[in-house]
Amino acid sequence: MISEEKLHILTESAKYDVSCSSSGSKRRNEGGIGNGYVAGCCHSFTPDGRCISLLKILLSNDCIFRCKYCMSRADADVPRMTATPDEICELVIDFYKRNYIEGLFLSSAVVRSPDFAMEQLLLTVKKLRTEYRFQGYIHLKGIPYADEGLVREAASYADRMSYNIELPTETSLKLLAPQKSKESLLRPMRQLSREKLVFREEKRKGRFLPAGQTTQMIVGASPEPDGQILRLTQSLYRSLGLKRVYYSSYVPVVHDSLLPEKPAGELREHRLYQADWLLRFYGFTAEEIVGEDGNLSAEFDPKCAWALRNLQLFPVEVNTAPLETLLRVPGIGARSAYKIIEARKYRNLTFESLAKMRVVLKRARHFITASGKFCGAENEKIVRGLLTAGDAAPVQLSLFPDFETARSALTGEL
Amino acid sequence: MIYFYDGSKTAFLTAFVLAFRDGQAVLSSRGCQLSLAQETVFVTPEPERAKKAEQRLLKIDPDCMNDLSTLLRSGDQDRDMVALNYFKLLVKEGRPVRKMFAEECVTAAMECIRRVTFEIHRFHGFVRFMESASGALYAPISPDNDICDLLVPHFRARLPEYPFVIHDVGRKKAAVYDGSHVFLAPLERAEVLLSSDEKAWQALWKNYYDSVNIPSRERLRQMRGYMPVRYWKFMPERSRPTL
Asked: Which residues pair with B28 in a beta bridge?
């Protein structure tokens, strides 16, 4: 059994990674313990409001790299610990069977060398799958510069793999994470997405990263505008088929002359997540979302800001507008759009029926008509006023509610 | 007229036949609405009558009995009326109504169903097993809705080699998987002899829970929203006096 102290230290250094999702894998139980849960499953919630789905832990926090923002960087004065593969495997099995966790999120510092660190990760997940016969969810962090063969083999045991891009441009990366290069992160990501494609096309047996790849970027530690970040995100979704891009707004904890003194703030991170949703589920492009100045509006959510720039397209009639148009109405989400599409097959919808269906009309009413009737404000100026009124305080984040989240910027992984 | 029934499917369908044409009908399976002003009928389940009603309803909507069985598992106070109104509309329309979201009674029924299925989903995460000396797993739960047997398929699929018991302590019954079969049994109290290292694993879990938290970012309201306090009782990480 792993010692209390070791568990504590290796968890402490892993906890700033934002991702904890366990969705996307249909892995079936074929004897042994565990299976995948496509929708993902939260097992507990910590007092910081975050969900515990996976056992998020480092194999080791003993790092040879010197990323400026990282707590586990080589020159930091922190206690160093390394777990054995068996310690991790036992922990996973005993936590899993008590239903504490949905699986493992394993990463590691670059201990000794990239290849050595990657080997240790591979050894652990291989053991967990074969000796311990674990078929629950495994998210594995990749080590930059590690041998291609090691990465490929590790991926064959994982449900999801991720490399953190960390910073949106090569220049910033060079400055803040001198031992990493954009290429060292993008190369293995491209390799994995290529191999997944081949795996699918050849209809090979078994699984290859069924839950795909994700990545994470620190926002606000370097000067890139939102537009640049979103275009990068868009290209990652399009060309590499990434499942998620996570953002963590920067908060200074480590002091360094190269790092900003001030935190980036929760609102920016929140807006980026809203924009990210529009890219993935609402049919928007990065070019449409970003304003003329290259940034997202602080005042309005990105969909609202887009609609205000394109008022000539509104109002739309809820009884006839196609799904993709409804999805572009501020305040109408995927769930409401679906309900409208279904309900209007049976009867003509009025504002009263929309209220009965519990469609939130606070913002939407300025952009729709129901059976020809319009209930919004008369002109743009009033709409703008009404939409910002009462929103003086930044909107509560649904996922990552404040800039402390940003401390994920200080992840010790990779 | 107030129609009392025992909460079973057969009794509901019998009561439905009786109450269908009664515009003032109040349907209830809970004793709290007794009123002297209205006449009261205690519905005796009639299997024949219920069967006929079921067949007629299934012709209108082949999936409607799933809706009914989910509604009858709900712990909501108003679930009997919600179910009655939903099935009345079904008969009136003569076609499936579950997507007629602009009808108040459909929205009410779908939300009631959603609360049951959502609680099942939540409990896929919130169930906490403890290991007994024999290796079998035991989890006490106290859900809002009557769902303990509906949790079994999920855990059986992922823990096929572990016998387990999920005990609804409030409803005094348990769903049991003995390693090959599943059954539901009344269970008042359970005495569980824990395995020798159960306490140590629970301690490690609490340690993990505390370590992964970011204390400077406290958001208790959000935590309680996602994981309501009424569920904490059987979760080792939350049932500590110090928290």
From this structure: B4
Q: How far apart are CA B72 and CA A67, in angstroms?
A: 57
- The C-alpha R_g of chain A, in whole angstroms, comes to 23
Nearest-Cα residue of chain A relative to residue B228? A45
C-alpha A179/C-alpha A173 separation (Å) is: 9
pLDDT tens digits, one per residue of A205-258: 888 999 999 999 988 888 899 999 999 999 999 999 999 999 987 776 677 778
What CATH architecture is A4-287+401-410? Alpha-Beta Barrel (3.20)
Instruction: State how far the Cα of B196 lies from the Cα of B53, in Å rounded to an integer.
Output: 55
Is residue B220's pLDDT more than 70? yes
ipTM associated with this complex: 0.94
Q: Mean pLDDT throughout B91-104?
A: 95
Decide the pairing of beta strands B182-186 and B173-177: antiparallel
Residue of B nearest to A98 (CA): B129
8 Å CB contact of B212 and A11? yes
**Angle, vertex CA A164, rays to CA A162 and CA A166, nearest 5:** 170
Q: What is the mean pLDDT of chain B?
A: 93
* Parts of chain A belonging to CATH 3.20.20.70: 4-287+401-410
Q: Which residues contact A315 (CB under 8 A, 6 or more apart)?
A: A366, A367, A368, A369, A374, A376
pLDDT higher than 90, residue B213: yes
Distances A129 to A30, A39, A117, A341, B61 between C-alpha atoms, Å: 11, 22, 19, 45, 45
Nearest to B132, CA basis, from A309, A98, A161, A88: A98
Q: Which residue has the tokens 């509604």?
A: B71
CA distance A62 to B44: 72
- Which residue in chain B is spatially nearest to A2 when comparing CA positions? B204
- C-alpha pair distances (Å), A78 with each of A62, A88, A110: 9, 21, 15
- Closest partner CB to A8 (pick from B162, B211, B223): B211
Q: Could you tell me whether strands B173-177 and B164-168 are parallel, antiparallel, or unpaired per DSSP bridges?
A: antiparallel
Query: In chain A, which residues have their Cβ closer than 8 Å to the Cβ of B152?
Result: none
Q: What is the DSSP string of A34-53?
A: ----TT----EE-TTS-EE-
Looking at beta carbons, which residues of chain B come within 8 Å of A16?
A: 214
Q: Is residue B42 within 8 angstroms of chain A, CB to CB?
A: no
Instruction: Answer yes or no: are the C-beta atoms of B115 and B76 closer than 8 Å.
Output: yes
Provide the CB-side half-sphere exposure for B57 (13 A, CA).
Answer: 25
Provide the sign of the torsion angle of the four alpha carbons A174, A178, A182, A183, taken in this order.
Answer: positive
Backbone angles phi, psi at A122, to 5 degrees: -60, -50
Give how far B64 is from chain A: nearest CA, Å.
18
Residues contacting A334, CB < 8 A, separation 6+ = A281, A282, A327
